[in-house]
Amino acid sequence: MRDLPDVDDLLRSTRVCALPMRTKFRGITTREVVVFEGPAGWGEFSPFVEYDDVEASSWLAAGIEAAYLGAPTPVRDVVEINATVPAVPADQVRAVLACYPGATTAKVKVAEPGQSLSDDVDRVAAARELIPHVRIDANAKWTVPQAIEAIAAIGDVQYVEQPCATVEELALVRRAVSSPIAADESIRRASDPMRVVAHDAADVAVLKVAPLGGMRAVLRLAEQMKMPIVVSSALDSAVGISAGVATAAALPTLDLACGLGTGALFVDDVAPSFIPDGGVVLPRAVTPFEALPLASSERAEWWRDRLRRCHGILATR
Ligand SMILES: O=C(O)CCC(=O)C1=CC=C[C@@H](O)[C@@H]1C(=O)O
Ligand SMILES: [Mg+2]
């Protein structure tokens, strides 16, 4: 990677934080994140703990870009966000939506392991009664026949995010249902995100700054993909969300609400969370609090080692 800062430079300001969450999301109730400071501000390194070092190193590249280069030039002052509804019981949907004041779009998680299709139908129906636009996210958990059955049972939605695991399956589902299909994992975890375009597998691209290697990488990919973009969080702290909001604010065209309101899922954050007001958040730089919810010294050492290894990978790129 060009202009890679020295690893000791990164480690000098590194803080390893453990952020408690309001509800279980992605199977976790505490989100660990690393933040560090560079000449342009703060950056985040928070790849999910199960990711290997090669995948995690893109997240480090994104944090370094934020801290050493800063945000791209914005073309808009506000970014509309969607409410993110975890796989909660239907009677809790109202309380979740209340955490996203003014949001007119909700993304509802479906296909949660251990739950049934009727749980999904009920949760989505509850959201539909309360908010104008509803999209769903299956996180690649359905087979093609399951996706077709579930989408028919759930009814029309704004889009279905990542119904199945592969690009080929997304393309099959897309041809079989009337709701639009969005690709997330097929872009952020793929060796070639453009396969989604080549296979005509999606109507919408969900792009996440940290897994895709940074704000400018997302802007370049958005330009190549030539389809509507949704910038979404990677369950980042306020530092990572700041990079997501800056990216969304710099996109030449943005017609859909972005998944950048996930600060509402945290009890504690490293800086004031991006909580929507009137359904939008404003681009801003973020400086972490003096007193941070620090992780244990064991976990801090684990993260510092991981950062060192990922830095080593970036040094070879
Ligand atoms: O898009 C949103 O509304 C919020 C972000 C979000 O849903 C996710 C963030 C990070 C990891 C994922 O499991 C999840 C997603 O799949 O989109
Ligand atoms: Mg998703």
TrEMBL record:
SMART domains: MR_MLE. GO terms for molecular function: magnesium ion binding; O-succinylbenzoate synthase activity. Its EC number is 4.2.1.113. One of its GO terms (biological process) is menaquinone biosynthetic process. Pfam families: Enolase_like_N, MR_MLE_C. Transmembrane segments: none annotated. Converts 2-succinyl-6-hydroxy-2,4-cyclohexadiene-1-carboxylate (SHCHC) to 2-succinylbenzoate (OSB). Belongs to the mandelate racemase/muconate lactonizing enzyme family. MenC type 1 subfamily. This is o-succinylbenzoate synthase. The lineage of its organism: Bacteria, Bacillati, Actinomycetota, Actinomycetes, Mycobacteriales. The gene is menC.
